[in-house]
UniProtKB/TrEMBL annotation:
Entry keyword Signal: yes
InterPro entries hit by this protein: ABC_Transporter_SBP, ABC_transptr_periplasmic_BD
Organism lineage string: Bacteria, Bacillati, Actinomycetota, Actinomycetes, Pseudonocardiales
Residues in the signal sequence: 1-19
Superkingdom of the organism of origin: Bacteria
CDD domains hit by this protein: TroA_a
Fe/B12 periplasmic-binding domain sequence ranges: 51-331
Protein name: Iron complex transport system substrate-binding protein
Pfam families associated with the record: Peripla_BP_2
Entry keywords, A to Z: Signal
Sequence similarity: Belongs to the bacterial solute-binding protein 8 family.
Length: 331
């Protein structure tokens, strides 16, 4: 194990997200220091991190979309996401950069001498496991929190801004941190044009009601208004039936799903084992007696998007277009 005191000095910033630390040296690199606002905290970097560990497929793809594969010591993604990696536009980067573990933890992070971890609350960071930004700070390792995962001040509820704005915020922040802000701005402009261009084609009239089904037998996990599916659904021309929930990914009851009577069910494809297969999820929805009267189930209006397209990440704009074309076909 490396000794953090030998590797890094620190700049501390405290916030509701916990104190964070950025790598520093006695002489800032050219163009540095830079400071970004992340989950309510001002975080300063005296130089660009060069050994980043990114956790989860969407977060890792943000790094790749910015052309930052060469700044990474590795990524952590469970093997249930192998199908998502195979379909990734950045598959070549996944093959080039080391997968250091399936689950992010201190041991693999320290094992590759990481100087920053890019993760989020419930995207790797959890108090229950002891893997938190505060713990990393104590070891001299910086952290950057996925904006979709920022806690909003009510318990552990997450989400402080609209989901696409969270993506654009992270792209701009990381562009600043790594000295590629021009590249980040161009990417944001490209995504904004893609989304706006599709929205301009949407017909007037009633919008289909959509329920995002992530997983769950007794209680389904779905998307409130601050998770990626909120804007994937709304900008595609639908209405998220749980847009009133001020949270990102959250549990609801099947009784509430029935009362809200969705026209379409958007299914999250984890790409994992048999119990998480799309076929298994469809069989469950079709066999659930309480859902028989729901229009989406009665008409078998199911649409599938991969996990990497539904969590915050650079596949979100294309997912809007893809799902929007489906919704247009069922209006």
């Amino acid at each position: 194990m490396r000794k953090a005191a030998l590797a890094l000095t620190a700049v501390l910033v405290t916030s509701a997200c916990g104190a964070q630390i950025a790598p520093a040296s006695t002489t800032p690199a050219s163009g540095y220091p830079v400071t970004v606002r992340n989950c309510g905290a001002d975080v300063r970097f005296d130089r660009a991190p060069s050994r980043v560990v990114a956790n989860d497929i969407g977060i890792t793809e943000i790094m790749f979309a910015l052309g930052l594969a060469d700044r990474m010591a590795g990524y952590t993604v469970d093997h249930g996401q192998d199908r998502g990696i195979a379909s990734s536009p950045w598959r070549a980067d996944f093959e080039r950069v080391k997968r250091v573990a399936e689950d992010v933890a201190l041991e693999p992070v320290q094992g590759v001498n990481a100087d920053m971890v890019f993760a989020g609350w419930n995207y790797g960071f959890r108090e229950t496991t002891g893997f938190t930004p505060d713990r990393l700070r104590s070891l001299g390792i910086a952290s950057y929190l996925l904006t979709e995962s920022c806690r909003n001040g009510t318990g552990n509820q997450r989400g402080i801004m609209p989901p696409l704005e969270a993506l654009y915020t992270d792209l701009r922040n990381l562009g600043t941190i790594f000295g590629v802000r021009d590249r980040a701005d161009r990417l944001v402009e490209q995504y904004q044009r893609q989304v706006a261009g599709f929205e301009a084609t949407l017909p007037a009239g009633a919008r289909p009601k959509v329920f995002l089904y992530d997983d769950g037998i007794d209680q389904p996990l779905t998307s409130g208004r601050t998770a990626g599916p909120q804007e994937i659904i709304t900008r595609a021309g639908g209405v998220n039936v749980f847009a009133d929930l001020n949270d990102s990914w959250t549990r609801v009851s099947w009784e509430t799903v029935v009362r809200r009577s969705p026209d379409v069910i958007l299914i999250n494809d984890y790409g994992a084992g048999a119990d998480e297969s799309i076929e298994a999820k469809k069989r469950f929805l079709l066999s659930h007696p309480g859902l028989a009267t729901v229009p989406a189930v009665r008409n078998q209006r199911f649409f599938v998007l991969p996990y990497a397209a539904l969590v915050e990440g650079p596949r979100n704009p294309a997912a809007i277009v893809e799902f929007g074309r489906y919704l247009a076909s069922v209006r």
